[in-house]
Amino acid sequence: MDSVLATHDLVVVGGGLAGVSASLAAARRGLSVGLVEKGPYLGGLATMGLVAIYLPLCDGEGRQVLGGIAEELLHLSLKYGPGQIPEPWQDPAATQKQRAQARYRVTFNPASFALALDEIVLASGITLYLDTLCTEPILEDRRLKGVIVEGREGRRSLHADSFIDATGDALLAQRAGCKCALGQNWLSSWFYYVGARGELQLKSLGAPAHGTGDPTAKKYPGLTSGDVTTYLLESRRLVREWCQENTDKYPAILPTLAQLRTPRRIEGALTMEPQRREYEDKVGLIGDWRRPAPAYQVPFRSLYTLEFDNLLVAGRCMAAGGDAWEIMRVIPAVALTGEVAGTAASLLAGGSVQNLDVRSLQEELRKSGALLDENRKD
Ligand SMILES: Cc1cc2nc3c(=O)[nH]c(=O)nc-3n(C[C@H](O)[C@H](O)[C@H](O)COP(=O)(O)OP(=O)(O)OC[C@H]3O[C@@H](n4cnc5c(N)ncnc54)[C@H](O)[C@@H]3O)c2cc1C
Fold it and tell me: Which domains does the chain have, with CATH numbers?
């Protein structure tokens, strides 16, 4: 069965911040883009998963290392409030020393961000397929010809010249037969509650107190229905226990996505490593969100596999090994890799991603405000 629902230049699977960034980058370069999201709105873990902290665009030493769409989305997250940019990052005259005192990050309201994401995506002419599940790729030799989607019309296909897997767990790449690596997921539970004075508050339970650094803590792969169900039920058990201990407060909003951090990623043409900071095919910089440290370069080869010519990945399912995965799985990094993947798709012109001219890609990224090492904002 292959009843075609639509044909686009590019189909992006997954409407988290990686998929949104990829779609924006490609659409702004003239591609017709179809963006498929199984949930009712955009933003993925950042909105449906209630992960409301946009981690830093700086290196913690007072230098901005991320610009482009990652910075645009950080500002967009505050459009319908509340929240604000830290003082030294609002003031263009602030010194590096002043900026080293406060990281360039914000806390946003997930519902506000979701509303603003609709606007920016529609304004770019992207075709949205919401509440639509992508189940598998349609393969033809070394290329993806289409993807199967399950929506209100039943089982249909979307065809395109190129595809970006932004599913968060490399579902499309894995179903195409690409080699993948599995991660560890500690139990987490982020939710909103109403406090004693009626105020709405974000609360996070679970890791790190119950996970990171504790080798005995239970880990969840999150790749079978049984495992995800257990994870979701366990994370809500934490909320229930918290309610029993905090009788003057009550839960208000629960996440509608499983809050798994690193379920699965591709084995890329190259895997970004934590020990290595420089790559000749660098396409962006990322700071360590946990501590002040020199920025890491992100290699383009970590965004595609060797198996397929027209498949890129974006977001937390890119090829980043060990501690590099921890650095690359967060919001600013997924926006960066989304922008890179979408820009790369716009340059493919029927060719293969393995042979893409990286210099042209770097040039194109610079033009749209992305920061590579030589022009990071001091
Ligand atoms: C508990 C927890 C706390 C975190 N804390 C922070 C934090 O404080 N700050 C920070 O910056 N980052 C944090 N992160 C990490 C960050 O939120 C995510 O890694 C990041 O938002 C992932 O973006 P993404 O677009 O790669 O993936 P996702 O946000 O997972 O987006 C993937 C999207 O693809 C969709 N999708 C998946 N499969 C299909 C399919 N088959 N068909 C159609 N659609 C599909 C999903 O519904 C989802 O919307 C946290 C993560 C977790 C789990």
Answer: 4-182+264-375 (3.50.50.60), 188-253 (no CATH)
- How much is the average pLDDT of 242-267? 97
Ligand 1 center to residue 263 CA distance, Å? 11
Q: Evaluate if residue 340 carries a pLDDT over 90.
A: yes
Of all protein residues, whose CA lies closest to atom 51 belonging to ligand 1?
261
CA distance 339 to 4: 28
Ligand 1 atom 8: residue of nearest CA: 53
Question: How many A from CA of 196 to the centre of ligand 1?
Answer: 31
d(CA 20, CA 120): 9
211: left (phi over 0), alpha (psi -120 to 50) or beta: alpha
Give the distance (Å) from ligand 1 centre to CA of residue 42.
10
Q: How far apart are CA 272 and CA 299, in angstroms?
A: 7
pLDDT at 277: 83
pTM for the model stands at 0.97
